Each structure stands twice: as C-alpha cells, then as structure tokens.
Amino acid sequence: MTSLKILFIIGLALTGFIVSLLIVRYSIRFNDDVSHAFELKKTNDTSYYHFQVASDTLASDTLAKAIVTDKNVKAEDIKPTVAKVEKAKFLFNSNPIFLVWMLVFSMMLGTATGLLLPVCGWIKNLYVTFKPNVKAIVLLIIVIVVIIGAGEFLQTPDFVNLLTAFEITRCFKVLFVCTTGLNAIIRVTMLIGGTTVLGMFVINACIPKIEDAAQNDSKKMVELYEFLRQGLKFFLTVLSVLIVYSIFTSSLFQQTLNNSIVIKGLDKFTLFPSEFIYAYGLLFTIILAIIYLPIDYHLRYQGKRMAALIQQAMPTDEAQLKTAEKEIKILESQDSGLKSLNIFLTILSPILGSAFSEVIKHISE
Predict the structure, then answer these.
(1) Which residues pair with 28 in a beta bridge?
(2) Bridge pairing between strands 37-41 and 50-53
(3) Average pLDDT for 193-214
(4) Of 19, 78, 234, 333, which residue has the fewest beta carbons closer than 10 angstroms?
C-alpha cells in the first residue's frame, strides 16, 4: 500500500469522525426546559403508558447556582446573589457519559470510513485474481441488501415490541431535537459492514477457482490459498470491530439515558435495560459465526483436497519433497492453537464486548 493511499485512508477516517461529531453536535437538545423526572400516570388506556412530569420537580432546579463574592467587601457586608449560567453549558458536566458516547459514536463512523478503502481494495483484488461470476456477485449484493433490510425491520417496535434508544429520546423529548442524522450515521456504518460481508461471500465464490487461477501450479495454489485465508480473516476482523463499536455505543447510550430520565415510583421500570446489551452481543456473535464458519470450512476443505492432489504427485527429489511437504502442511491448515484462539475470540468479540462494557459500567459506579 502506497503512502498516498495511507494518507487517503487517514483522511477518510478523520472526515468521518468530524462529520459525525458535527451531526451529533447539531442534533443535541441543549436548551431543554423539560423536566427529566417522570411518573407513570394511571389511566384507563390499556394500549399506552402515560408518563407525566413528576409533581415535585421544577425545570428551574437544573439552573446552576453559585455565591458571588467580592474580596474587597467585608464579610458582614456580603450579600449572596444567584449567578445564572446557561444550561446548555452544563450539559456534559451533568451527564459526562454523554460526551464519552458522542466521541465513541463518532469514532465508529471514522473507523468505518477509514476501513472502506482497504475493504474495497480487497474485493477488487479478489475479482481481478479469480474473476468470479459477475451474476453471483450481483446476487450477493442483493442478499446483503435484503439482510440489512431485514435487520432494519427486526428493530421496529411493531415486530419486537420494544423502543430503540433513539425512539426513547423522541418520546420523552430528551437529549436530541432530531435523530435523522444519527440514524444516517448508523446506516452508513451498516452499509460498510455489509461491504465486509460481501467480501466474505466473494471469497466463498473464489474458493473453487483456486486451481484454475493457479493453473495447477502447487506453489501458486498455496499462495492463493493463503491469500484467501488472509482476506477472510481481514473481513472477519473489520466486521467484528464495527460490531464491537456498536455494542459499546449502545452501552454508553444506555447509561446516558439512565442519567437523563428517571421514572419515579417504579423500582424495576427501566427504559433501556442492560439485558438489551447482552442480547445485542449474543445476536451479533451468532451472526458472525453463521457467516464465517461455513466459508472457513469450505476453504479448509478445498485446501485438504488440493493437499491430496499434491500427495498423489509427490516428487522423488529430496529438495522438492521438502517443499511439497511444506505446501501440504499449509493446505491442511495445521495451525498453532493460538491462531485458532484468535479466530474464536474474534467471533466471540460481540458478546465479550457487551459483558466487558457492563463490567466497566459497574466499576465506574
């Protein structure tokens, strides 16, 4: 990779980070006169919960108060006055985890945009090297779009009967005046994540073409086999990084909501419980395993098949025999346990990330 490409990747990452910061900044509800303490109101309406502002809470309570004094005035002459400070300036002081979420959320888009060029570069190299069927690639793109669309549908309240974090802010009119830009950031990140999934599917389409691309040259077969393995590992790592980002941002935003909204009189009523974070991590762990493991098995199976072909034509020359044995060892994927552990931990990273975020939250408390 040339230095110019590296600079371009850094530029994309910084652009994504700054754009995300600006979108979040102009989405925040700074001057908020609405009380964040609510009570559940009992009504005859069986279809909706009705929340009202807690009777003992006033919006003016959020104003910062300070005693202003003058050193040149005698103590007995001091008369305390109220120093009014704009509530907007106290937003992150009163809810510091909101600032942390804002930075991590922006880093997520920055990382995604920075990784977009390497991901597209890998897919391009795969196509140039193996020339998979164009129709198959178009079909894969359609499948990715359907998967993302299904994921969007599965998040709707009508299907899962739960409010998303941004829907909670809209219902209670807290934190944001508008979440359109924030949802756009999430969708862009999802599309880049979908591109990595496309790359993994393209690798799956390239696996049967190793022998044709190598023209039955055993050395070339090993090189192409290793190339596909590195690509599969790269796509898995990128996808897991983006998923872990989304889990951490969800956990941070859960804490932000808990600091912003208090439901009085209901000890076990939590608008965005921790169980959502665990379910989120478990779901993405299953998705990673479903996508990666069959493709990895397909690649290993093809490697063992090519190793059997090399064994059938073992050379008699000692030097060539050692080379053939090395090639067979690589194709049979006789890796150290550490590499397998790395893959295992990468697949488990979503659920481990959700557990780790909860541990950090409890330590900070």
Answers:
(1) 176
(2) antiparallel
(3) 88
(4) 78
